[in-house]
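Technical annex B. To support the medicinal chemistry partners, we prepared a structural model of the target in complex with zinc ion, based solely on the information shown next.
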Amino acid sequence: MAAPATAGARSVGPLYWAGLWAIDLVSVGWFAIRALFRLRACSDIRILVYHDIADLTPKEDPLRVSVPVALFEQQMRFLSEEGYRFLSVEEAARLLSSADIPDRAVVVTFDDGYESVLRAAVPILNRYAVLVTLFVAVGRLGEARFPWSPAGSRFSRPLRWDELAELAGSCAMEIGSHTVTHRPLHTLSPAEQATEVEASRRVLEERLGRPVQVFAYPFGGWNTFPAHLRDLLRRHGYTAACTNVMGANVAGANTMALRRVRIGWNDSLWRFRLKLAGAYDWSDRARRVLASLRSGNHEKVESLENT
Ligand SMILES: [Zn+2]
């Protein structure tokens, strides 16, 4: 499930579209300025995050966590034809720590464990030889629907265990933990946090017979992955963890708070390419600052680089 910043938009009316186009306008302008003055940052690794691969209408998915099958195929074909190198999260974290970052490196991740990954995404992933990382909320496997999917909606259901095993063997895939219950980890008691982190990994390793070393914070927005949680993950043997904060990762990035690029149903290929180029990286920080100004809480924006 995506960050609260995304979850904040509950309806898709004129205001939504006006906001989206305003963000597009600023992003394109920012991208043009950077290109003009050659402000492109040093090599980086972008980690894309997908959820459900399903043909839902905007009205059916105001949280924008689904991507239509045809659009997903366009995006994977683009990455393949443009010569992007696909990395696992574990490999990306290792390269970021060693500062040995290849050109055009990208990581494709899926959160939660939707059945559509097996049914709709795998044929496309295999067609373009895409390596992916799947973050699974193990306690949700086999349930009729995810708690955030409205009853009767066309969102895909969670995978079953047998489907997850089939999926793990059907394409190049790294499996990571997304906790057991998918509750916001930072709000739980220390004992609950330890259980979510430890049990999810252990069950995945036992059931799938493969090591699990990477993690994605549920929701994953600003302030959902404080330092004590990053330490907890390290103590339990995780080597990397992904947030849902928008942006790229450069050499020396905090590997327990990796940034990602959220992809949703409104990311047609031109917007997808701009996101890959970093044109939208400013948007999360701006949202965060605006939210803190609105709430009157002038809290300093947390630096992901703080370990
Ligand atoms: Zn999630």
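Notes passed to the chemistry partners:
Residues 1, 111-112, 178, 182, 218 surround zinc ion (CB under 6 Å).
The CA atoms of residues 46 and 248 lie 5 Å apart.
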